Amino acid sequence: MKIHIIDKRRQLPRHHNKKYRRRSREDITQIVIHHSGTKEGSPESFARYHVNHHGWPGIGYHYVIDKKGRVFHCQSQEEITYHTANHNQQSIGVCLIGDFTKESLTDFQKKAALAFIRFLAKEREIPIANVRGHNEYKGHGSSLCPGISMEGFRGQLREKHLLPLLKRGASGEEVKFLQQALIKKGFDPKGIDGMFGPLTEKAVVDFQRANNLFIDGIVGPYTWFSLGL
């Protein structure tokens, strides 16, 4: 499963002389889920706070997922960032924007998070049992972060996602389902005929462009999730 993300690594504020230590990717055995604890936010605002307030070398999260379901790559996986004290050496930090003690993940955010964490766990050969919330780590039990049920989240990570990969030349009921979803989002493929032709491809490309997705005209997991499915 391939997930396309927005690379912010060269764009975020960094400390003028501090740098994070580095590691090999083979050292990574854990994924830590955080929430921002704020109603709104962005990779830029988190980076400014971490650098200017904490004096850190840069943003503490490797990835940030916003309420629109956009995944931002903020630090290289080889960087040992500060996100879960005493557990940073072996972990990747993923932050979901929101305060989930007071609100719920949006549908886009939840589906994007599940798809991306599945992909990341597979890429790094990390078992789902090693996808843990911030407050599941020793020394962090009093934290409210990430504010969601990690048992439930891990259960959903183990579920197989059944929506197919669709591209030009495909046909059938699944393409009709796609065409209906595109129309609901305001991207009309000029009919619901079950044929993935040039007009459906154009509607997909236009939708991907409008939603800051990787533009390839192919409907994979991230495009499905951005469609709210």
Automatic annotation (TrEMBL):
The N-acetylmuramoyl-L-alanine amidase domain, residue ranges: 17-147
Domain (Peptidoglycan recognition protein family): residue spans on this chain: 3-138
Composition skew (Basic residues), residue ranges: 11-23
InterPro entries reported in the protein's UniProt record: Amidase/PGRP_sf, Amidase_domain, Peptidoglycan-bd-like, PGBD-like_sf, PGBDSf, PGRP, PGRP_domain_met/bac
Pfam families, sorted: Amidase_2, PG_binding_1
Feature: compositional bias, Basic and acidic residues: 1-10
Domain of life: Bacteria
Region (Disordered): 1-24
Homology family: Belongs to the N-acetylmuramoyl-L-alanine amidase 2 family.
Protein name per its UniProtKB record: Autolysin
Organism: Thalassorhabdus alkalitolerans
